[in-house]
Write a structure and sequence with these properties.
The chain contains 1 helix and 14 strands, in the order E-E-E-E-E-E-E-E-E-E-E-E-E-E-H. It is mainly beta. The protein folds into 2 domains: 84 residues, Beta Barrel (Lipocalin), CATH 2.40.128; 65 residues, no CATH class. The protein is globular and about 55 Å long. The N and C termini lie far apart (38 Å).
Length: 176
């Protein structure tokens, strides 16, 4: 979305109190969700990847590394992890053409895997925030942002439906 102007107050990393994920809005209008790192191990000389309680069967690649192509055993979703720490997910259902992209990193000396996935592109007009998903579906909210608090508002009633706190504000609050 190179032509989209994003309200500068939205750019940054956001938290939803009580949830472990982080949410990021970039200056070029991309919206990412990062999941907490999860335990990672391999079986069968790298033929099976165990990640966060889920099993993945290797399709392409070798060794005890996420790099390669995997099929999630329970869902059939395809995961392709590249050596440059990008990944693509090809969903098997409900829409087998739906894809998600993100970045990954090994943590805790290679025993945990962290991912951050692009969920949407966003547009703003000063009063509304629209998330455009990979399928092209727009989800629109009213919004207000002040002093590190982002409120998403029902576009019809203007009642708050969600409140994000900026990571920067959380650091300031913790410091005193």
């Amino acid at each position: 979305m190179a032509d989209t102007l994003i309200d500068a107050a939205l750019i940054g990393i956001w938290l939803l109190p009580g949830q472990p994920q982080t949410y990021e809005i970039t200056e070029d209008g991309e919206y990412f969700i990062a999941e907490p790192e999860e335990p990672l191990s391999f079986d069968g000389a790298g033929a099976i990847m165990n990640w966060g309680g889920r099993r993945y069967l290797r399709i392409v690649g070798e060794g005890e590394t996420p790099v390669g192509t995997w099929r999630e055993e329970a869902t059939g979703d395809g995961w392709d992890f590249t050596a440059n720490h990008a990944y693509t997910i090809l969903m098997s259902a409900p829409d087998p053409q739906e894809t998600f992209t993100g970045i990954w990193a090994l943590r805790n000396e290679g025993t945990s895997l962290w991912t951050c996935e692009k969920q949407a592109d966003i547009k703003t007009d000063g009063a509304h925030l629209t998330f455009v998903t990979p399928t092209g579906e727009p989800l629109s909210y009213g919004y207000a942002s002040s002093d590190g608090v982002l409120s998403l508002l029902d576009p019809d009633t203007w009642l708050e439906v969600s409140r994000y706190i900026s990571a920067e504000r959380m650091v300031r609050s913790a410091a005193g």
